[in-house]
Amino acid sequence: MLKLCGQRASLTGVLAKSYCTSLTSAGLVTRKIDKVLIANRGEIAIRVMKTARKMGIKSVAVFSDADRSSLHTRYADEAYHVGEPAALKSYLDMKKIIDTAKKSDAQAIHPGYGFLSENAEFAELCAKEGIAFVGPPTKAIRDMGTKSIAKQIMSDAGVPVIIGYHGNDQSDAKLLQESKKIGFPVMLKAVYGGGGKGMRIALNEEEFAEKLESARSEARKSFGNDDMLVEKFVERPRHVEVQVFGDTHGNYVYLWERDCSVQRRHQKIIEEAPAPGLTMAQRRELGESAVRAAQAVNYVGAGTVEFIMDAMGNFYFMEMNTRLQVEHPVSEAITGTDLVEWQLKVAQGEKIPLRQQDIKLNGHALEARIYAEDTKAGFMPIAGNLEYLSFPKDARVDTGVEQGDDVSVHYDPMIAKVIVWGADRDQAIAKLDKALYKTQIGGLLTNVDFVRDVLKHEGFVQGDVYTDFIRDHEKELFYDSKPSVSARIESVISSVLLNQDTGVSKHDGPLNSRDYFRLNHVAHKIVTLKDEDVVIEFPSSDYMLVNLDGRKYKTHVYSIQRGNTTVSFGLEVEGKQWNCKAVSLASSFQVYGHEVRNWPKRTIDFSEAQVDASSSLSARAPMPGVIDKVLVEAGDTVKAGQALVVMVAMKMEYIIRAPMDNVITAVSCKPGANVAKNATLVRAISRHRTMAPPSYADLGKSCNDLFKKGYNFGFLKIESTTKSGNNGELEFKTGAAHNVSNQKLNGNLDIKYKVPSYGITITEKWNTDNVLGTTIDVQDQLARGTKLTFDSTYAPHIGKRSAKVKAEWVNPNAKVNADVSLDGGPVVNLAAVFGHGQWLIGVQSGLDVASNKLKATNFALGHQGQDYTVHTFMNNASELGCTVFHRPAKNVELGGQLGWTIGDKTTNFGLAAKYSPSADLLFRGKIDNKSNVALAATHSLNKDVKLTASTQFALTGAEGTQKFGLGLEYTP
């Protein structure tokens, strides 16, 4: 060993210090290390810094523009800027890294993993500059980095090698020829590859060319070289690797094996040590083979020898990673060691701290890599802000981020590694599952829930793991689980508590907020969970009722503790208690309780505080945003809690709701419009003061619908409605009906197109009778509250045309409709309804212009209460009638009709009812005074499809009166 001694000037040029450098036979620089530069970022940089600090060694960080305020720069003793966000211009710039080491007086560089950690040129450059490279000799890196050379060295060293081709002839024809000799399936691997890149499996000769080109292309982009090797593909292989260590004194040890078989995109997500299901003899055989591999290349420092293992337990050399692995903590956990400490000691020329016989295998360890990624979109990486971050206190967590940091688009999206130790594998699995439940990350999608699903999978629990485990169990691992009743209840309570007035004391109950509306003097609130509106009732200060699936759940909330963006609370539902935590994020809220759920923030209730003394209401924008949907128009009567406007702001959807029964007097916004904070969107007036009337045709509509809607007698019917565009601007509606009695098949197609910015709606219709129809509606363009309609039909096969112009004007106290038929006459029809309080009065008449005669004149009188309507009418002084509608319960509607003809003194009456026992089931029934009975049942097969079966018959048993109908409605 040759020693070289000298002096190096400090940065100031005034101070100087002595140093001694040793060149070992392995070609490494070893020296006393007082300061180490970590040529990496994130989690591994902090991992090295922690051990360096424990050893009294100062640490130097490097950072790119993207990492200027990253955690590793704040944790280090010193930090230096090395370039732009792109790794090639910062972390992979060897000259900048070396210059920074010199500038900072760092005696050593620890490369971490990735970046320059397996770059032989960089290790050689460090040696030339007299800087200790915390890693193996240059030759070992170079030999093990070239897979074909590595295979030959391993074969010569007696390490099992899988059959394959590692030759210089890289022509496609040669690779195909060798693949046929080996026998399909084969694995194509980039010679200079790593990290799962440049790898493809060719199952047969037919797909070989395609797989080869794909592997070559990826290798060229990743490594700048597309040379390939071919190996026999082992089916259902396990990825088993051994942690080895060597020093400059010729000592070598192994620290047992790890199983890293659970992978996605050829990258590991769960690692464990030791590998499940192996005998102690197999473990020692693996370890001894790994040591032979290290000895064959005079290895120094931490390394990992990766093997592929078949179902029979046979193992074959795959590659050697000449660096510290991401998953090294599980080896530390089962051996009680600090491998970074070993690295730094060996880099200073010390011996390995333990002999092989002193390295005991103790217990079982598991590590989960937590990534920012969308597991259901092919594990697509995600960048963005970590709005909330909380890790378990009873597990080891290696991370390079804190709450508020960003996951950068420029680097690997790993957020953290969660590591646990257990006395055995079952205990370790249980501990990791619990630790992942406590790993709370808000703001980005992560793989936490997916990893928990893997841990609970029967195959994983039994240790039946292999590299295609995730692919082969897709159906069990990739699924959309519907939230349970408990999860939905804890989520709606979380929404209430998180949206409570910030002035409420942190110990106050959920009933102290004023942000509720009232129905029948009972405080209510509506919370929207995605597509579900959940009503919460507050009958007393002690409990609330959560309405789900037609049932009311008595719910108590207690022990409320609030943080800045969090709320923790106890929950009791139907006698069962549990604890919950909710986190408010920018565009969603996350709930940790019976289940872990993330929900979009969607509900902002237009509250009673906005009602002034005159009962005039204004719905205002809560913040600047864009109007997405306008769900009401002037003259509409709306119920308490009904959605009025949907707007989008900061990627959040806000639903503005009515706080009580109201009548819309004006709509001041349109879809697509940008609105300022506090801009008036909708004006309304309390229905208890003035009720905006319906059109004359809609008087008694609630009752009439009970008799007319939901039945299909004598028909087999199918309907489909689809919408496209951001606001459903384009709508297609198709239908077909088969008349059972005459066997006639009818079909229709309707196309509706909306131009919201101009208030125009155009509808084109066609049916199988070859009748074409066009309707053009123009809303609120001539004046607010006006609507003009042009309606025409044309039957080309008989040359018949018809056309009509309609006009409507509405304000809170009146609605006037008029239409003019352009056929012959013409005929002018006029109808008006006037309202005062809860009373309505209407008149309808028509004038035949050609004969200058009035048509029939009709009158109506109505009264509407909270849950009932009464409507009386007189038609042309010859017919009197009355309808009554009553809603005794939320899911029950009743109606009655009575009519009397003055001329022949005939009386007709009927009764109808509608009952909905659950959200997806609806029953209807009606009977008249002639004993005609009709029944119907509608079942929602899912959110898009409804099936309705109807029947009609006479109780008197008259022949030919029975009818049956079937309808299928599809509205995606």
Q: What is the fold named in CATH at topology level of the domain at 697-804 and 866-970?
A: Porin
The low-confidence runs, each spanning 5 or more residues with pLDDT under 50, are: 1-20, 502-522, 603-616
Q: At the first level of CATH, what is the class of the domain at 697-804 and 866-970?
A: Mainly Beta
Structural class: alpha+beta
**How far is the first residue's CA from the last residue's CA?**
78 Å
Report the C-alpha radius of gyration, rounded: 38 Å
Strand content: 35-45%
DSSP helical segment count: 18
Number of strands: 64
Q: Mind summarizing the main beta sheet?
A: 19 strands, mixed, barrel
CATH architecture of the domain at 697-804 and 866-970: Beta Barrel
What's the average pLDDT?
86
Under CATH, the homologous superfamily of the domain at 697-804 and 866-970 reads Porin
Helix content: 10-25%
* Principal-axes shape call: elongated
Brief summary:
This protein is an alpha+beta fold and 972 residues long. The chain is built from 18 helices and 64 strands. Among the domains are: 113 residues, Rossmann fold (3-Layer(aba) Sandwich); 71 residues, 2-Layer Sandwich (Dna Ligase, domain 1), CATH 3.30.1490; 114 residues, Glycoprotein, Type 4 Pilin (2-Layer Sandwich), CATH 3.30.700; 78 residues, RNA polymerase II/Efflux pump adaptor protein, barrel-sandwich hybrid domain (OB fold (Dihydrolipoamide Acetyltransferase, E2P)), CATH 2.40.50; 213 residues, Porin, CATH 2.40.160.
